[in-house]
Description:
By secondary structure, this protein is of the alpha/beta class. Helix content is 40%, strand content 13%. The chain has one domain (10-326): NADP-dependent oxidoreductase domain (TIM Barrel, Alpha-Beta Barrel). An 8-stranded parallel beta sheet has the order 7-6-5-4-3-10-9-8.
Amino acid sequence: MAIPEEQMEYRRLGATGVKVSVLSYGSWVTFDTQMADDPALECMQAAHDAGCNFFDNAESYAGGRSESIMGRVFRDLGWPRWSYIATTKLYWGIHGNDPNMRNTLNRKYLMQAIEASLERLQMDFVDVVYCHRSDPNTPMEETVWAMSDMVSSGKALYWGTSEWSADEIRHAIAIADKHHLHAPVTEQSQYNLLERRKVEREYQRLYADTGYGNTIWSPLASGLLTGKYRDGIPEDSRAALSGYEWLRSRMSDEAALARIERLRPIADRLGCSIAQLSIAWCTLHPMVSTVITGASRASQVTENFAALEVIPLLTPDVQEEITAAIG
Length: 327
């Protein structure tokens, strides 16, 4: 059953004026690896029908092919460019071992990488471009100037960080303030019931002081919080994909699986799945602007976005129950 668009909540992206859907759709793992253009279009259309206006990507996803697929899908769907928010991330590079184009945030790389991303996405600009990781080998001043220039040139409207420390983010903001540059406005970090420290502790003061946003990824802990791994690793899961062997040991973690199973009675009582419960829970933190979901089928998108109906059910008492169950 499709989720009515009017159920979607829209939140400000950090302290900016732009509003993003509280649930969004990202292409990590799925685009190119698990699906091509047609199913990607179906998934993006299903998300859009539910009120999603935020679509996340990255240069490194499938070596740039994920951006190419999303670009073709946007073209084929024909949505007005003002009606959605498109993002990408830069850092890892896709040019082999070239010292200036891999694992870096130097100015040369950033300026060339954004041009290539825009070409693959078939866009004149992205709404948000993230520094996919921090780079201790490039002066922070160089990175901040380059990202600010990217915004000033109109190739991006905002810029942000992904998996940076709170101190690194504060440093970047301070440099931007000192030189009257465009400062980063949002983080993109992992946040879920099994991974809470960074958002709830490290970023607590940063959010209070600056209103910094967070467009979180992996709300289901790469699928662990779906509850589908209690009987082993399904053949159609991402943990079974070639190149994602690193996930398999985590998906077999008996202690984590036992913690997740303690959520099942709560989900059953609320009439939802463990996955929907977990996604809805992520929206409760005030720093979270949007929760990026992933899916390889339109039916999965609809199932994930049904978490919108669960959010109002998570009363303070239920939240305490969830915390007690998960530990």
